[in-house]
Amino acid sequence: MDITTSFRHIDTSEDVRRYVEEKLSRLQKYVETPLDIHVVISLERKYRQRIDVMFTINGVVINAHEVMDDIYAAIDRILDKLERRLTKYRDKMKEYRESKLKRTAPPPTSEESGIIVSRTVDAKPMDPEEAVMQLTASGDMFMVFRERERDNVCIVYKRKDGKFSLIETAGKGP
């Protein structure tokens, strides 16, 4: 961690510099990467002390400022602000990583994916023309059958345009 402290329109104080470094070093526990913190302490209107703190985490700029009569109280208050911001940043990153892991998770099982009804279908041997006639008569959305000539499992269904489509398996069925 690197903390750079600058003083503007105010005398340089080693006590204040040490206090800033001591307090702001607590921010390192919130992030994995080393912080490079820039602190500017200045005087406003001849009696009010202002502290500005700025640093970058993974391309995100975090800055805060505080104006008070007492510089030590301003440092304490700005530390509280920065701890809240870093906690919020850390929680957002944690949520992002967890959601990224969920997106790459294995596909859900039948119970998790919302399958309502499952049934076993007996694939009877018939010709595709016979399957189309039975599908039309039954009013179902599809018909599973076993083709007589090649003994492979097939599915026939009615398309949106009113025509029928046939899906055939490459080999023998179960």
Would you write up a description of this structure?
With 174 residues, this protein is an alpha/beta fold. The protein folds into 2 domains: 2-103, Ribosome hibernation promotion factor-like (Double Stranded RNA Binding Domain, 2-Layer Sandwich); 124-168, Sigma 54 modulation/S30EA ribosomal protein, C-terminal domain (SHC Adaptor Protein, 2-Layer Sandwich), CATH 3.30.505.50. The chain contains 3 helices and 8 strands. The protein has helices at 14-24, 71-103, 128-138; strands at residues 2-8, 36-44, 48-57, 60-68, 124-126, 142-147, 153-158, 164-168. The strands form 2 sheets. It has a 4-stranded mixed beta sheet with strand order 1-2-3-4, with helices on one face. A hairpin with a 3-residue loop joins strand 2 and strand 3 (48-57). It is rod-shaped and about 100 Å long. The mean pLDDT is 86.
Low-confidence stretches: none
- The largest beta-sheet arranges its strands as 1-2-3-4
Q: Pairing-aware structural class of the strands and helices?
A: alpha/beta
Treating each run of at least 4 consecutive H or I residues as one helix, how many helices? Answer: 3
How many domains would you count in the coordinates?
A: 2
Shape: rod-shaped
Order of helices and strands: EHEEEHEHEEE
Q: Could you tell me the number of beta strands?
A: 8
Strand content: 25-35%
Enter the CATH topology name of the largest domain: Double Stranded RNA Binding Domain
Mean pLDDT: 86
What is the CATH first-level class name of the largest domain? Alpha Beta
Rg, rounded, reads 35 Å
The CA-CA distance between the termini, in Å, is 66 Å
The CATH architecture of the largest domain can be given as 2-Layer Sandwich
Helical percentage: 25-40%
Largest sheet: 4 strands, mixed
- CATH superfamily descriptor of the largest domain: Ribosome hibernation promotion factor-like
